[in-house]
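Lecture 7, part 2: worked example. A protein chain together with glutamine.
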Amino acid sequence: MTVKTTVFGYPRIGPQRELKKALEHYWSGKISQRELIEEAEKLIINNANTIALHGIDIIPSNEFSLYDFILDLSFMFNVIPKRFKKIEDPLERYFAIARGSADAPASEMTKWFNTNYHYIVPEIESDTEFELRENKALKEFELLKNNLNLKTKPVIVGPFTYLYCAKVKNYTYFSDSIVSVYRRLLKELEESDVEEVQIDEPAMVLELDNDVQTIINCYRKITTGLSKIKVYVQTYYESLSQYEKIVYELPVHGIGFDFVEGKENLENILKFGFPEDKTLIAGVVSGRDPWKTDFKEALKLIETLTKFTKHIILSNSCPLMHLPVTVKNESLPEEILRLLSFANERLEELTILKTAINEGKEPPEQNLSMKFTNPEVQKKISQIDENALCRKPSFSERYEKQMEILKLPLFPTTTIGSFPQTAELRKVRADYKAGRISFEEYESFINNEIKRAIEIQHDIGLDVLVHGEFERTDMVEFFAEKLQGFAITKNGWVQSYGSRCVRPPIIYGDVWREKPLTLKETLYAQSLTEKPVKGILTGPVTILQWSYQRKDISKKEVAYQIALALKEEVIELEKAGIKIIQIDEPAFREGMPLKKAKVDEYFDWAIKSFKIVISAVKPETQIHTHMCYSEFNDIIDKIYAMDADVISIEASRSKGEILKAFERFKYDRGIGIGIYDIHSPRIPSVQEMIEIVKRSIKFIDKRLFWINPDCGLKTRAWQEAIPALKNMVKVAEIMRKEV
Ligand code: GLN
Ligand code: ZN
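Predicted complex, written out as structure tokens:
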């Protein structure tokens, strides 16, 4: 028996973040549209070439995107919100939907399944007419055919997942317009000599309930009339739901499974078999964790699969975009480096596995054991009394005391933590890291930034100040650098959204705090003002979620280790006189498992890890948390259970849905509903912000209501942040007079 290999979701940002640079140059007017497109085409060709050179048999295409692949689909299907229709230039219109324009706010952005990738939510209205405006998949197919002489496999997100992303609950859409655009799309591909196409349906791992028959019918319709083209449906991030029905009845040539995160996929195959006439795409190398594939285990798995089918294509488990491009050029300690495998190394692994099967060639010997433990950390973990994690006294008593001490007015104003990170600041940080400037020079620069930020906040008239986070490149990386048990890469970038990339740290051993993390900058800022300065930490779930995790212990245990380290920091901040401490948990929702059966267990340890951080503080110390860019509507009870005194939460992009959820829940703790969207360069008006406040205080006690933007301001320029915040402070002043 012989197998082939394919991959999908290869990182599109380029080995040196070429996409980021090109986009930012285009947005700032440094390069033309033509130059941007040329750079994009270069990347498309290079990426396909890299994949081909590593010996992969079936090369994917239509994987590139100038901002987001879901937005690309909306654009292809002419799902364009009305407020952008007047923008003539298509590319300008495309970026306006993603980023907002002078007079139209951007579309909502949210997290792609349980990952840290963000997509632009399609706005499907009752009168939306789907039409195939342009065939991007075909364009990329032809680009690669002409330039590399390769016949590639276009990859397209499928109708079920697209509608799921658009939050369409009523799948009658399947019956008409969306079916016809997908059918047209596939037909055009077939007529243009495309031989195979991959349709991604990660939403098929969610509980499908009654949708399953609708999905099968939809696929019957979209594949009617196709003769030669092979359609593969790819699932990932978990195991396929309703395995038996879908596998046997979905009218497609093959189905792809994630065997890394979807452990039940194998169980299902063992139980229900696999249809003879279909191809099984076996996702055996991880698209999400950075650890080398264990060849022995993978070969054993493939051998088991061969008992059920002769048609197997080896692949990655889920999109490779969650990994950096390559481990080459990383200068980590050898004992860690030897364990790692990023996107290009996954390509190598697939080729090794293929040769092992097809030619009987033994894969190289591996030593993958990882033991970086600290007995003291393990002792502390074993001493945690989960039932004692409780703040006393009750919230209302605590809050009253806190507000008395803090002397805050009604509708206190604050920000989320970070202030603009200028090019100069980035350069100074890089110079310091590279040893080009001394610690003293670096420190005095940061202190000056803090000082300036405090002055600006005074001038704007904010009530609770922050130091500005100038010393932090990234809210997770900063902590990972200071804590033990983390490794930091030099060039391990992955796309978070649009041009924004992050470098997830790698947790390889027990985590502990050797030295203070945030004390110096926070205390310096507090020394400059009488107003309270809020200490800002990143929470345990977010640090865990935005890092690569070790595989030898549970997520819960790692989260507890991080929580214990943060708890030490919180106590020291409190001792040093800091009265408000914010623990950011923007990834709290993102970490939620995709399968309902696993959700409770997750929230149990996620909430407890937050409580480990905060439960030892005095009643007078006010604990804030912050969350953004996820759907929080259905987890308000979990947020409440974290027992923070104040939460600031993103709301401006989700158009009031979250407000209704808080109303239904009768939320009665401190809350700052983000009243403007900091991800857009647009300056919000006083009036539009007042409306959000007024809507909110209909059901939230005004004494609990805080006024703040919806996230940190690090990506904005000062000339955008200052006028926006001044308007925001005006809102508070007007509201104080009105109520
Ligand atoms: N404190 C962080 C900041 O202001 C929070 C960022 C986030 O929520 N993503 O940048
Ligand atoms: Zn945020």
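Residues 439-460 form the longest helix (22 residues). The mean pLDDT is 95. Keep this in mind for problem set question 3.
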